[in-house]
Every structure is written in C-alpha cells, then in structure tokens.
Design goal:
- The chain has one domain.
- The protein has four helices and eleven strands; from the N terminus they run H-E-E-E-E-E-E-E-H-E-E-H-E-E-H.
- The longest helix has 13 residues.
Length: 268
C-alpha cells in the first residue's frame, strides 16, 4: 500500500513535537521517564494501514465538536523492540495484528493563529478503561490497500469488525489523547501537518504478562486530508490517516506544552 504520510524522518520530527506537547485533558496522566534513545525505542509500529473516524467532525475546517467520539483502527506493521513482543511476525501471510483505539470523547477543538499558520488542538477524554486493544487474527481480512479502505467505510461490515476479531493479545488505557493540526498559507500553497499523542498503559490481554508495568507514549503523525504540502488522500468516510508507534517503557519524553507551529520556528 502507498505510504501517504511520508518518510521516517518526517515521522520522527512530528513525534518529537507531539511528545513535547501535553494533553490538555482534565485527568492528569502519569509522568513518563526520559527517552533513553534517539529515536526512542519502538515496541509496536503501525503506518500505512491506519485510519481514524470521528462521528461529529467537520473535515473542511478540522473542527471536532465536543462530545464527538473518535475511533482509530489499523494494522500493526512490526514489533521492533528486542525481546518483549519482537518474536511476533506482523508480516506472517497467515495472520494479522490489528489495533483499535476507542472510547475517546472530544472536548472540542481549540483554534489559534500564529501568523500565516492556524493551529487546531483537540483533546479527548477516555470514556472507559481498555481504550486500546490489539488482536492477533487469522486469516488476514482487514483492508490492506487504499482501494480496500475506500470500499469499506467505517461502521460497515468490515471496519471495525475485522480489526476486533481473533485473540485479544493486549488491551489497556489511553490517557490524555491529544491531536494537533497545523495549516500554513504560503501564497497559493498550503503546508499542512499534524500529530497525536497519548499515554498508554497495558492492563490485559494474553501477552500482558510479558510487558506488565509498561507505561509510555503512543505517538505519531496525524494527516487530516489533502494539502499542497504534507497532505494525504483519505478514503471515503474517514477523517484522518495515522502513522505511529508505541514507545517501549522508559523510552519517552515528559510532556511540556508546545505546538507544531512553535517547533517549526526553531528551524527557521
């Protein structure tokens, strides 16, 4: 499948921005250890086959209405961190590893201006524990190309059902889920970027004993649609394309408030 969100270097830069920007949710998240590697060690990776759906969302304005529910579904692409889960083969043709982020309730989008850049920040409260789930299933039956995603809108027969079949190998909590989108007008061109982050804490699943005690960041790129620079094409009915990772425990950066716009100013 075509990787709409760019190369690993772009992901690494946006991950840095997301990791340095805190969630604004009212529930305090646990402080996380300083990242012990550069880039941070990756426990679980997901990229091309991952999309978000939100039920009260304006795709033209990037505005999430308070009370809107967000769901993210996708395929795991690798388990890179040595030990832990690295024996799992995400490319096994006879099975697939899928994930679902659910139970995320929007607190509404906050819009701010920074010169030619408009910043859109949205925080989500968790409705329940177990806000992320990872499944091992057979056969491979989840969308694996853009055409398949486009032909299988969220809420249909295949999605999210195909991402929730099989054996639940990991589940847990998400705290402080935060999405930032930056849109800059450069004459006739539009430069667009986005990121997401949350604390994750495994609490269950068949493989939970192997990573019990983990609490780290799940973080990555958030692309809300087409743009001249940095945009992506979304399948019908989906509201964002995601690309990210679950950091290994003890490999994260404590949260301090920032934005993608402020990060870009460093490199000007």
């Amino acid at each position: 499948m075509k990787r709409n969100l760019g190369v690993a270097a772009v992901l690494a830069m946006v991950v840095t921005a997301a990791a340095s920007g805190p969630a604004l949710a009212s529930t305090a998240c646990a402080p996380l250890d300083t990242c012990s590697g550069n880039p941070c060690p990756v426990l679980i990776q997901f990229d091309a086959n991952s999309y978000a759906y939100e039920d009260i969302y304006n795709a033209a304005t990037f505005i999430s209405t308070a009370g809107s529910q967000l769901t993210v579904v996708g395929l795991i692409s690798s388990f890179p961190f040595p030990g832990a889960l690295s024996y799992l083969n995400a490319n096994d043709p006879g099975k697939e590893y899928t994930f679902v982020f659910s139970g995320l309730l929007s607190k509404g989008t906050k819009v701010a201006l920074n010169g030619p850049t408009t910043l859109y920040d949205t925080d989500y409260d968790s409705l329940k524990t177990g806000s992320f789930e990872i499944y091992e299933g057979s056969p491979r039956n989840s969308p694996d190309t853009f055409a398949e995603w486009n032909g299988n809108p969220f809420g249909g027969v295949l999605v999210p059902a195909s991402h929730q079949d099989g054996t639940l190998i990991l589940s847990g909590e998400l705290c402080g889920f935060h999405v930032n989108v930056s849109r800059t007008l450069l004459g006739p061109m539009i430069n667009q970027s986005g990121s997401f982050r949350a604390n994750y804490k495994p609490t269950g699943g068949t493989l939970y004993p192997f990573i019990a005690g983990t609490e780290a960041l799940v973080v990555g790129v958030w692309c809300p649609g087409p743009a001249t620079i940095g945009g992506c094409t979304l399948p019908a009915n989906y509201t964002a394309h995601t690309n990210g990772k679950f950091d290994a425990s003890g490999a994260t950066t404590p949260a301090t408030r920032s934005t993608w716009g402020r990060l870009k100013q460093i490199y000007r």
